[in-house]
Amino acid sequence: MSSPIDLLRRQVSDLHQDLVRYNLVVWTAGNVSARVPGEDLLVIKPSGVAYDELSPENMILCDLDGNVVEGDHSPSSDTAAHAYVYRHMPEVGGVVHTHSTYACAWAARGEAVPCVLTAMADEFGAEIPVGPFALIGDDSIGRGIVETLRGHRSPAVLMKSHGVFTIGKDAKAAVKAAVMCEDVARTVHISRQLGEPLPIAQDDIDRLNYRYQNVYGQPRAAR
Amino acid sequence: MSSPIDLLRRQVSDLHQDLVRYNLVVWTAGNVSARVPGEDLLVIKPSGVAYDELSPENMILCDLDGNVVEGDHSPSSDTAAHAYVYRHMPEVGGVVHTHSTYACAWAARGEAVPCVLTAMADEFGAEIPVGPFALIGDDSIGRGIVETLRGHRSPAVLMKSHGVFTIGKDAKAAVKAAVMCEDVARTVHISRQLGEPLPIAQDDIDRLNYRYQNVYGQPRAAR
Amino acid sequence: MSSPIDLLRRQVSDLHQDLVRYNLVVWTAGNVSARVPGEDLLVIKPSGVAYDELSPENMILCDLDGNVVEGDHSPSSDTAAHAYVYRHMPEVGGVVHTHSTYACAWAARGEAVPCVLTAMADEFGAEIPVGPFALIGDDSIGRGIVETLRGHRSPAVLMKSHGVFTIGKDAKAAVKAAVMCEDVARTVHISRQLGEPLPIAQDDIDRLNYRYQNVYGQPRAAR
Amino acid sequence: MSSPIDLLRRQVSDLHQDLVRYNLVVWTAGNVSARVPGEDLLVIKPSGVAYDELSPENMILCDLDGNVVEGDHSPSSDTAAHAYVYRHMPEVGGVVHTHSTYACAWAARGEAVPCVLTAMADEFGAEIPVGPFALIGDDSIGRGIVETLRGHRSPAVLMKSHGVFTIGKDAKAAVKAAVMCEDVARTVHISRQLGEPLPIAQDDIDRLNYRYQNVYGQPRAAR
Questions:
Q1: With pLDDT > 70 as the criterion, what percentage of chain A qualifies?
Q2: Which residues are in the Class II aldolase/adducin N-terminal domain (chains A, B, C, D) (predicted)?
């Protein structure tokens, strides 16, 4: 019989395949984590391991300070940022980090993706904001994510000159946000190449977002 | 033995794989429907279900007001728009909706794709037109589609700031229109990035379209 | 035991998979043909049939006027153009037609792809030239191809507002030319988006082309 | 029992699949080689052979002057360049050559890719530099690679009007550099299409590069 942590190991391992399938990552540059519900623990990708070598068994279990609790490899070098988010945003159950191409292209200019598609209004409810430039090695990246996303409708932040972090109620929701972030970053980029996308009125953005977050899809369990 | 509705359930389920294969959709953002010939019914994708979890069994059967007649899930949140098209365009047997990248890039600027490729003259016989900005929730989207496409040669409309709807004599024809719409939206976009595509004379567009719609391909049954 | 024509049917059927694999075609928009060596016959794709439904058996055998000699379907609607090339260029053993994206983007502007990559000098030995605008239905397309490519080093022509035709000593060589044509059309397009690619001296183009056409690769049989 | 050279044949053969998987090559245009540790030998792709026909058995064993020691085919036409690198950079254990699209787009303009992403600071530690225009046939290409990369942090060089060469401590590291080179060349290109990417301070580049080269990932053996 599988424990809740075993199930989470499998889910986190499997979700990395969505990063590959939607072309959000190359080589080993991207990672998914999940909070262990009700415990001060998280499950995350091992560092520097190829996506087709991931398995439930080699996922790393860490505490919320990023220390390894169980696992034979080092955890992702982005573990500190994931852990910071879980410590400071109790509503977050999953975190994803990628260097997906179009999102990084906006991040490299330090420019937010404007909300000019109804699908963006649905998913993000606002522009996708830019977070500060921050070096790896301490809490700077985690703090930048939390300060940007706290109180923001968007579950995605473009960290300046770096890449994307997304959050969700669970790891699957965070992966979905990473997929949609790249999709709209690409579409809006391409639209702007030949002119200026039309704005959507704030009122319409609000209505679309409210409806999507509260009505769309199957009853919660099936989403 | 399979009933006509069972066959349609299979066809609609399978055609969603073409949306995936031709990169017209990510996550769950796109849907195919078919009219049940001779009945006031349609078959459509369930809402918020992943493409690799679709099967003939979980397709939803609705009446032409979008009410579920048979099915365990909610129907696509775009069902009202599909149903409106079937109610008002009796010649339409299939409807497709996508947020495909290049088509959406034109839609975000509210700009029609000009007919500057012989393949566009063949398939669309004209520019691909823009429909109004419309919020989900009532008949606005359906009405915008019908008012734009009625009397137009193009089987595709770019709904402003939103995405693509295509129609066809059956679901397969509507899927083909969605595939070709993205293909020409991409090619014309890329062409315009480095200059201005050459116009094709209206007379030539007319001749190409007439020939393609009446001569090309295998006898109708085999298309 | 397989006859030479049976082997050619298999080869032509299989080579269509390369068009799919290298993203040169969508739906049914592209075709490969081969001359039957020593006979006034060609083997070509049936019209309007999906790529994953192609088989040696449903390839169409035509004479060099494009009349069906053997086959249950109509031949490709581009058969007249292929046949014209075989009638007027006896050295050609294979012809390919695609609407590949970047090549069509240049074709839509009526602009040749300049020879600014050593790989282009190798394969094409010159710019990839533009052929005339020509309607389907008579010999205009075939004549445009032949008049543009005769005496030109390039095995590929961009037919204005239409697409690509490539030729080769056999069908595989024509497919390779179609693959490389899209590859260099894309790279040069992308290069020009941010400035002007550096020219390569004519003398260097000549040397590269001579070497590649005469020295590169395995002994002829193994190419 | 497998000899060290047999293992290397397999590794070099397999690594070509990464070139395909990451879309760095079309047809036969790209190659991987590895130095045989402790011997004046290298293993390289045969010339003009398709990627899905590669096997450990048809890899070519050459001396460091590029002469075939063992193998039924001709070695890659780029063997002289690989061999030159091994002769002049004893620390190099693997070399990769591709015509990957975005890297070639910068190479065609003779323009270095500026270091404006933290992932570039990690992997390349600097801009990706441009090497001279050089014709195939003598040591010009090899010399251009070595003169550009010697003393440079970047393991990748954009050879003017030509393509990419990357080096690594082994063939896998060189393949990784080729994958990351195309990835950042693409992201920076796309970023610059709509404005100017923000610079990263030299000091920050230095710190990121030092950390990544010394701390990241699993202990060396597992990388």
A1: 96
A2: 10-189
- Residue C97 counted as domain residue: yes
Give pLDDT, residue D214: 87
Inter-CA distances, B47 with A174, A216, B26, D62, Å: 19, 7, 14, 59
Q: Which of the four pLDDT bands, split at 50, 70 and 90, describes residue B2? A: confident
Q: Would you list the DSSP string of chain D?
A: ---HHHHHHHHHHHHHHHHHHTT--STT-EEEEEE-TTSSEEEEPBTT--GGG--GGG-EEEETTS-EEE-SS-B-TTHHHHHHHHHH-TT--EEEEE--HHHHHHHHHT-PBP--SHHHHHHTSS-BPEEPP--TTSSHHHHHHHHHHTT-S-SEEEETTTEEEEEESSHHHHHHHHHHHHHHHHHHHHHHHTS-PPP--HHHHHHHHHHHHHTSSS-GGG-
Residue B130 belongs to some domain of the structure: yes
DSSP for A43-73, written as a single string: EEPBTT--GGG--GGG-EEEETTS-EEE-SS
C-beta of residue B27 within 8 angstroms of C-beta of residue B47:
no
Q: Answer whether residue C194 shows pLDDT above 90.
A: yes
Rg (CA), chain D: 17
**Domain assignment present for D171:** yes
Whether the predicted pLDDT of C217 surpasses 80:
no
pLDDT tens per residue, range A117-175: 999 999 999 999 999 999 998 999 999 999 999 999 999 999 999 999 999 999 999 99
Mean pLDDT value of segment D200-223: 78
- DSSP states along B78-117: THHHHHHHHHH-TT--EEEEE--HHHHHHHHHT-PBP--S
Closest-CA distance of chain C to residue B101, Å: 15
Would you say residue C223 lies in a domain? Answer: no
Q: How far apart are CA B110 and CA C200, in angstroms?
A: 41
- Which phi and psi (to 5°) does residue D92 adopt? -85, 130
pLDDT value at position B198? 98
Residue B190 belongs to what H/E stretch?
A: helix B171-193
State the average pLDDT for chain D: 95
Interface mutation target, options B190, B206, B209, B210, chain C, most CBs of C under 10 Å: B190
Partner-chain contact A217 B109, CB within 8 Å: no
Cα gap C109→D15, rounded to integer Å: 40
Look-up: residue for tokens 């060589």? Answer: C173
Q: Residue A106 has what pLDDT? A: 98
Chain A residues with CB inside 8 Å of B27's CB?
176, 179-180, 183
Using a CB-CB cut-off of 8 Å, the residues of chain D touching C183 are 26-27, 29, 99, 101
pLDDT digits (tens, 9 = 90+) for A174-219: 999 999 999 999 999 999 999 999 999 999 999 999 999 887 655 5
Size of interface A-B (CB pairs under 8 A): 92
- Rounded Cα distance, B148 and B159, in Å: 9
Whichever domain contains A47, its CATH number is 3.40.225.10
pLDDT exceeds cutoff 50 at D95 = yes
Q: What tokens were used for C110?
A: 């009526």
> What is the residue range of A163's domain?
4-216
How does residue B15 score in pLDDT terms, banded at 50, 70 and 90? very high
* Number of structural domains in chain B: 1
Closest CA to D83 of D98, D97, D99, D62: D62
